[in-house]
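Database export, one record per block. Field names are fixed; values are copied verbatim from the stored entry.
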Amino acid sequence: MRAKDVMVTKVLTVGPQVSVREVAKILLSNRISALPVVDEQGELIGIISEGDLARRVKLDTNYRRSWWVEMFSGSRIWRRNI
């Protein structure tokens, strides 16, 4: 499988001035997990993802990637906890 097999061609973008609340609404309503952030000229300046919106309750909480990222990266044995 290649990136082109799972990517979308109609890409939604946001500007750096868009609120976090609005980003969350866009992600949820479009059932996507990330948005490119572009400047006034349409140049990519960053990406904001659902992971960026998640807050850790404790400072010492270990970061754990999404199960699907682990599955596709092959960096760990994939096992989804259901």
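Remark 1: The radius of gyration is 15 Å.
Remark 2: Helices lie at 3-6, 20-30, 50-53, 67-73.
End of record.
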